[in-house]
Amino acid sequence: MNTSKVSGLKAERSLFSYPKYWAECFGPAPFLPTCRAEMDALGWDSCDIIIVTGDAYVDHPSFGMAVIGRVLEAQGFRVGIIAQPDWSDKTAFESLGKPNLFFGVTAGNMDSMINRYTAEKRIRHDDAYTPGNIGGKRPDRAVVVYSQRCREAYKDVPVVIGGIEASLRRIAHYDYWQEKVRRSVIFDAKADILIYGNAERPLVEVAHRIANGETIDTIQDVRGTAVIRKTPIEGWRGSDSTAIDKVGKIDPIPNPYGADDMGCSKSEFAKAGIDLKSEAAKPITVQPPRLKPWEKVYVKLPAFEQVSVNKPLYAHASRILHQETNPGCARALFQRHGDRSVWVNPPAFPLETEEMDHVFGLPYQRIPHPAYGDDKIPAYDMIKTSVNIMRGCFGGCSFCSITEHEGRIIQSRSEESIIEEIEQIRDKVPGFTGVISDLGGPTANMYKLRCKSKKAESTCRRLSCVYPDICKHMDTDHTPTIELYRKARDVEGVKKILIASGVRYDLAIEDPRYVKELVSHHVGGYLKIAPEHTESGPLSKMMKPGMGTYDKFKELFDKYSKEAGKKQYLIPYFISAHPGTTDEDMVNMALWLKAHDFKLDQVQNFYPSPMANATTIYHTEMNSLRNIKNNHEEVAVPKGARQRRLHKAILRYHDPAGWPQIREALKNMGKAHLIGRGPECLVPDESTRGRQTGSGQKRGNKALTKHTGFSQFNQANTKPRVGKNKRKPNKSKPTHH
Questions:
Q1: CATH number of the domain that 432 lies in?
Q2: How far are the Cα atoms of 9, 488, 570, 597 from residue 494, in angstroms, in the given order?
Q3: Phi then psi dihedrals of residue 143, to 5 deg
Q4: Domain tally, the chain
């Protein structure tokens, strides 16, 4: 069932319904210009909009600056790009001249702090979005720095900030790198408007309103934007956040489809003396439609000065933010910062399928800008033969930023649009070998899965549609995905379609047909999935299903692999030091890994990204997934380098480098019986000193991710490894803008 047909979430105006700006006469540029010479070649005397980005310019629909640039170009605007400018002074920001309308500023596809620093706050020396994979080509907090340089270059030009870095900092937020609560980034950037989430719809509206003569200070009410104000917008009714999230359960959402909205009954007309059958019946005065309970309503959050010092209030504000994310029923947010406030309008409505098709069908060159020559851009190499088929994620994993940025509503492209892109890859991408590396997005198997109830989709405030159980309204029919896979395999010139995006296996087991299709045709020897943990404590704070679901998926995976006559293996991802994880939880997970003969090569400690639910738990050590009560639930949070290193070492129990630390921890926990040479032991005793153990691990050898029967796979000289377990946004799948 294609549930997009019953969606209750639709914008009043289509993305491409605006009259074109006058500069449409110039037509689309081969590449959006990055220097004056390219502008001259196009016959431009100026740019209408200039995008400043922390990424190299790759004209591909997986790169945010290309998507935004091409969408604005399709509206008739002349768009230039300043990519990875020298931020030491304003000179680079003057390279394209003064924009006629505004600067659009983004840090790029990744948050600049996550891009620059590891989870242990060590500096990275590489950058997958930079030619030559060279680190340090963008500043820390790039949105702030770039915006300030734009102001220095042309102080009277409006500055609009967006992308994932701005999106995840739209209100006061905990900053892991400074270990304090920072104010909304719109204040530090001194920007006029902040756009959060996928930017197409709000940015196009803002651009046309400025082009039509509105001044930037009057554009205050665009969905998906945040602005600085002294007072709430006139005509909006306010409510205090504590009235919404009281001690106890959340106030129920009033039913917008109740009897009061169904009009008058015949008896009521009769009582009023109106004969419905009579042609002489008096005309009825039509009252204006009654506002829904959330329309023209804003929620007053605790002020920055309060949440920066009061952890329960911070946790409370975080809960409110995450409850107000459904475009169908979200209220505006209002948070004071000193004598000013940030006003966050309700989220923009998701794109319809036709709009998605139009966005992905724009004239991308699908390659990096020629100015980079032969320099490799790793992020491009990773995705040049992959296709984004959808956006959004209703999984709601607490550590992931996808939901906060792209939303919970799945936005899917049509089969025709996807097939056309596969054909373009075949015909345009240099060196194409016939293999499509991925058909996916934030997840592999949420394509066209939407809520089956128009009313529920429009009013639901659940953090996840699949946790703790799959919602009864959620469509789990994978037929559209199965049909897409089959049609993609039939494209002439395509030898193989791989699925590299993570499979949401709790959804997959609801439709075994999908698992069979996936395993039989689209697994390249191994398939990555993400249980994240084995213990109920951490899993409950991650909002992830238990291992019973994993076991069911593995059973189907093994069954269909055998039927297909293939030796294929699951590669599970796990995360260490996540909020809610005790030392004992990590030991139990390591014992599970050992019992199942898994050895993880590279693992990732929890990384507290701004605004994520798990980051709130990390900062406050409270379970903000529930009401913050007087006797709130305290959560065990691994903090400090020593404990975080211990958790990572336990996850890699087979690595001799971590044995001394693990032995000490096991003794302190009263689990010394797990030290020794027996099969029940986690690590060998001190006398081993890196000699070969019962697990077959030798000192100095890299540990492979292993599964039972892996030796046969190894003999075939195909070694599956677990890569760095980055949480989203990740370098291998650049989808954010």
A1: 3.80.30.20
A2: 36, 8, 25, 36
A3: -60, -45
A4: 2
Token pair for 260 = 């009061």
Give the largest CA-CA distance in the chain: 103
Nearest to 705 by CA among 523, 515, 528, 501: 528
* Domain ranges, residue 482: 385-654+703-715
- Classified as helix, coil or strand, 727 is coil
**Which residues, 6+ apart, have CB-to-CB distance to 66 below 8 Å?**
32, 57, 58, 59, 60, 364
Instruction: Answer yes or no: is 115 within a domain.
Output: yes
The confidence score (pLDDT) of residue 629 equals 74
Of 132-141, 293-302, 643-652, where does mean pLDDT reach its minimum?
A: 293-302
For 339-394, give the DSSP string: TEEEEEPPPPPPPPHHHHHHHHTS----SB-GGGTT---HHHHHHTTEEE-EE--S
Domain final residue pick, 295, 315, 344:
344
Residue 723 has pLDDT above 60, yes or no: no
The answer to whether residue 358 is domain-embedded is no
Residue 353 · residue 15 · CB < 8 Å: no
What residues are paired with 58 via a beta bridge?
A: 368
Query: How high is the pLDDT of residue 693?
Result: 43
pTM value is: 0.87
Task: State whether residue 510 is helix, strand or coil.
Answer: coil
pLDDT of residue 701: 33
Q: Is 321 helix (H, G, I), strand (E, B) or coil?
A: helix
Residue listed under structure tokens 């004071």: 336
Is position 737 within any domain?
no
CATH number at residue 46: 3.40.50
Q: Give the three-state DSSP class for 275.
A: coil
